[in-house]
Amino acid sequence: MEHASAAAIVDTDGLVTGWSEGARRLTGYPAEEAVGRYARDLLAQDTEPGAVSALSGTVLVRHRDGPAVALTLRALPLLTADGSPGGYVVTAERPGEGTFALTGETFQQSSLSMSVHDVAQRYLRANDTALRLLGTSEQELLGRRLSDVMETIDADGPGFRQYLRQVAETGRPARYETLTPASSPLGEHAWRVEMWPVRDASGTVAAVAMAGFETTEQHRARQRLALLNEAAAGIGTTLDVVRTAEELIELLVPHMADFAGVDLLDWVLGTEEPVVESATDVSLRRVAHRSATENYPRPTPHLGERIVHPTYSMAAQALQEGRAVLRGPGDPDFDRWIRLRNEQAPHNRAWRRSLRSALAVPLRARGTVLGVVLLARGAPGEPYVGDDVALAEELASRAAVCVDNARRFARERGTALALQHSLLPTGLPGQAAVEVAHRYLPSGSAAGIGGDWFDVIPLSGCRVALVVGDVVGHGIPSSATMGRLCTAVRTLADVDLPPDELLTHLDDLVSHLAAGGEGDEAAELGATCLYAVYDPVCRRLTVAAAGHPAPAVLLPDGSARLVDMTAGPPLGVGGLPFEATELELPEGSVVALYTDGLIEDRVRDLDHATAELCHALTASVASLDELCDSVLKAVMPEDPCDDIALLLARTRALGAEQVATWNITPDPAQVAATRTSVMERLAAWGLTETAFVTELVVSELVTNAIRYGEPPIQLRLIRDHSLICEVSDASPTSPHLRRAHAYDEGGRGLLLVAQLTQRWGSRPTGGGKTIWAEQPLPQG
Asked: To 10 degrees, the CA torsion angle through 537, 543, 549, 552?
């Protein structure tokens, strides 16, 4: 280390003009004896060939005391204002015993790109690797400013200059990464650049050294990994086939391609099963494409149009072979395909002439080919290589799974929707009790179609049942369960059970269905239901619910409120009672039944949502249908995550002129008097044509009530779209048809009633039963 500062300054004539203390220790000559002498006079022998031009080498110097001293010399030129050498700084040190003077050779022959710059950013030295990359010689490079050189290779010139200046000013080393673009003469390469200060004997920064490590492979590996990570998060964000294809294209361009397109088989865009493709030309449909430069090339075909790929094309072969196909100019099939495309779309000829290579990758998922993704890269980009093919296959594989998931979801959604629509009422029968309007909006969420349903069921005595329900879960299982419950409700309604009893039977059914399943299947059978019965004669609404939201009622005075009732447990819980709530409604009231998708939202308060519903019901509209739309617009969440069913019913009432009632004394002698009263009422109604059948029905039903029933007994006639005869008594025993033998005196009455009327039946009441028969009115 004591000789580290041995240095001398020599002018261009070889005259020593400067001499350091370190030089005195090595040679014995003080500065006053060395300065002014020619450097060759201090040598013990001639210099090695080429040492002068190389500015480095080992020489023998004659020590002042006589012996020769071996020294390793290195010279650095001192540049003038015009960039030419005005002298040299020569440093000297003793070579180690048994070592070689390879310091200069190591720098010059390093595989790293290395250079030395003065503090004004001029080149002082550059090794062979740097000269080769820059495409110049050392004579042409030395003395030139870094900014001039960087501009010629289109690199990150400002970045270089900024870091060089920082090292020169602060004396601290720096490190940064840069990328030369594909348009550069160097091509697209990544570099990690190390810069460090070079200090003179006084410790002052005299130069800045720089070494460039090429990290292109590592850079591309990081890019591939980043692209795969981005694909995991960015492809398949929706269960939509076309959107998934668009997400793949957005990832490929411009990271991997200057142009990319996705073509799918037709059946993938529908709900059909895969079809077997022939070995001839392949017909696909373009669903997504993108160019790195806007409208260049101008994509053909347009989105949604069909494109036919001939058998020799990359797309057809990729589909047929199930593997990626890479081609470029010079390949016969590729050139043939280019000629065909030039004929079909001549406006893109210039773009095709710039192509470096193209890649077709099949979209294959679960053993099924769905389509193909096409990638093309033009000049100045580099052709695709094996790593690009592997990356494209990985991205296409991920996208294909997402496309197949979207396709399967669309198919299941379509099946569930078709099943649900087949079960929901489409045209509700006209009846006297209510005017109805309804809406059903299937969920658009990834969870699939839910199990919401509604129904309007005509009952005996002009009454009507209003039903809404919601099955837990989504998809085909929920729709199938909804179908079971919907059918069960209609069956139980036909028995004319009160709402609370009907829900009890329905709860038992759900419990039995759940007991037959296992795990998640059993859980899917959970459901809620609201069942209401409206009687237009007494204008009473009876409601019971199983875990379902309470209905809202709009009264004729314009006020709206929720019905105060007990929600009850959801269906399938079992062992808990259901409670019915009764309320009398003025004629013209609107009852709103709905499923929870209308009012429930992740960010909305439930009480606030029900208040919005009541307020929405008060809107001034011309019809019940318009009120449905108004309620949905005002109350429905912005992004519904569940199905929505809404059923509105405006109540009607049957006036006293349409109903006739008689209290019957339990005496057989009263039957004749009752028949007479009924005939008089029919004449007053203008229904004498029905007198024969009605007289027989009244006689049979009243006689049976007197003979087998218990008082009080009541007869009621209701005239609406049909003529209904009802006889009520306090006995819970229901009548039934039986076949009378030839010599039996009775047993034929109910059989005649069943044959002469449109329909008949019985229903339980709070204190007994009601037997009813309905016959059509004559068309007038």
From this structure: 30
